[in-house]
Amino acid sequence: MITITLNGEERNVQDGTSIDDLLGIIGAEKQRVAVVVNENIVYPEKRSGLMLQENDQVEVLAFVEGG
Amino acid sequence: MNELQIGTHTFSSRLILGTGKFGNVESMLDAVRASEAELVTVALRRFNREQVEHDLFAALSTIEGLTLMPNTSGASNAQEAVRAAHISRELSGSPFIKVEIHPNPQHLMPDPIETFEASRILASEGFTVMPYIPADPVLAKRLEDAGCASVMPLGSAIGSGQGLATAEMIKLIIRESSIPVIVDAGLRSPSEACAAMEMGCEAVLVNSAIAVAENPAGMATAFKEAVEAGRKARHAGIMPKSGSAVASSPLTSFLGKTS
To answer: Which of B75, B84, B135, B194 has its CA 20 to 30 A from that of B98?
Structure first.
């Protein structure tokens, strides 16, 4: 197991978890989301190949209603 | 001439809609359709399955011809706003960004210094920048010089419904500006949107007044028609004011009178 920070909260995930896997775990796999890992935007085509590392700071963001 | 040009984009509609505060997503979508808006604002937030009941992007994608303008609300300084803009562009696929930096939740007044800095950076990066600003003609000109595609001065505080409290300042901004001036925030009723257009605004941005109406779609239609009326009146030439009465009917030759 490794520990990452997801949207400001610590979370344990299996070694070898990709960004795509993580989106599946949190139920965001079907939604259009932006992913930022350690302040770098991770584009959709890179998400299956990028494995999470210990202490990664991950932000998953989406559009919500706003004015 | 009748199209609204913002940067390299043109729009038939001059009503921009905010998507916040609606009772549910269906009423928001109905209002967007009724408004015939082609540009709508959205906000960027952390994904939370417990809180997010629907996919807003997918919902808005069902309406043809809609362009998303993400805002940078939540940012309290230029650096945060620039970061939010980069992420939003990845999501929206649109160069439009509403720079919105209001650090004080009590009054939500835009921070002119941070707004200028974020807008300057984003314009230099190729964004179509539309900053939400205090109604300040000097700031508006500086933002135009920095490469913004429009300026969006507030009519009054966000969500306050106090209308065009800044009308005289907005007139000064319009007089000096070579980019579209769009009133954003504070409008309560269609007559105020009409007045903004008569004044020479190129468009208005409305959210609360439509979202919290008893019938949001009905109010969206009313705002759409008011914006169109104001625009037409502006171009038809509004009569000057006179200090005294000027009769509309002849004052002579009434029956039974000698002169």
So the answer is: B194
Tell me how far apart the alpha carbons of residues B136 and B173 are, in angstroms, rounded to a whole number. 7
Note if the pTM is more than 0.90.
yes
B98 among known catalytic residues: yes
pLDDT in tens, B80-127: 999 999 999 999 999 999 999 998 888 999 999 999 999 999 999 999
Q: Which domains does chain B show, CATH number per domain?
A: 4-236 (3.20.20.70)
- Asked if the structure places residue A38 within a domain, the reply is yes
Model ipTM? 0.93
**Residues 142-171 (B) with a CB less than 8 A from some CB of A:** 158-159
Distances (CA, A) of B128 to A65, B15, B197, B245, B250: 20, 18, 22, 48, 55
Q: Spell out the residues 6+ positions from residue B91 whose beta carbon is closer than 8 angstroms to its own.
A: A32, A33, A34, A61, A62, A63, B44, B57, B70
- Report how far Cα B65 is from the mean position of its chain's Cα atoms: 18
Rounded CA gap, A4 and B231, in Å?
54
- Please report whether residue A18 resides in a domain: yes
User: How many domains are there within chain A?
Assistant: 1
B210, B17 contact by CB (below 8 A): yes
| A57 reaches B (C-beta below 8 A) | no
Q: Is residue A67 part of a domain?
A: no
What are the structure tokens assigned to B39, written together? 């540009």
What residue of B is the nearest CA neighbor of A35? B87
What angle do helix axes B167-176 and B190-199 make, rounded to 10 degrees?
A: 40
Please give the angle made by the CA atoms of B4, B165 and B109, to the nearest 5 degrees.
85
- CA distances B120 to B48, B57, B76, B112, B173, Å, are 32, 28, 16, 12, 19
